[in-house]
Here is the input.
Amino acid sequence: MRAARRANFRIEIDGGIGTDTIAEAVRAGAEILVAGSAIFEHGSPRENTERLLKLAIKATLLNM
Here is the structure.
């Protein structure tokens, strides 16, 4: 829709991003994702961030 209307903006989702939602958010067009709890609530923040990033990249590649 953005391309069809030549709109120049980025879509951000702030909250609710986790391993079970990140792929859908990316496929829907979100480019900026805020994932505080998914990163800091349990386990290693570094490992959680890497896991989310891998899922986002995979969703991006599947969306092409």
The longest helix spans residues 45-62. The first strand starts at residue 12 and ends at 14.
